[in-house]
Design a protein that fits this description.
116 residues, alpha+beta, Ubiquitin-like (UB roll), 4 strands, 32% strand, globular
Length: 116
């Protein structure tokens, strides 16, 4: 596998829990959103290996509109990390289509106990 924050040829190379996140910047396709309004669409897909095969979790959510696509992708990744923490998913690989965000996230110290 490449170092964290770099492109990956195939997610099939990843062993263990995989958590995918994606965002839709300024989307109008949100249930209950008033006509003419926009929001940030958030998609999270979690794939957990298990003895019985694989457990898959799909989450579709929305958030307030953001100023940039990078902010939208950040909301999606932060939401995915929060959900993984609450579900006690350990040693997961987070996958996103935003290389800028991936490189930034790879620079943080994830072993710092003050970071939730």
């Amino acid at each position: 596998l490449p170092f964290p924050g770099n492109s990956l040829r195939s997610d099939l190379l990843v062993v263990g829990p995989k958590i995918y996140s994606d965002a839709a910047f300024r989307t109008k396709k949100v249930p209950g959103l008033p006509p003419g309004d926009v929001a940030t669409g958030v998609g999270i897909y979690i794939s957990l290996p298990s003895e019985q095969g694989e457990i898959n979790i799909q989450i579709q959510a929305s958030a307030s509109s953001t100023s940039t696509p990078l902010q939208a992708e950040s909301i999606a990744l932060a939401s995915a990390a929060n959900i993984a923490s609450r579900l006690n998913i350990m040693h997961a690989t987070f996958l996103t289509d935003c290389l800028t965000l991936t490189k930034c996230a790879a620079l943080t110290n994830t072993l710092d106990p003050s970071i939730p």
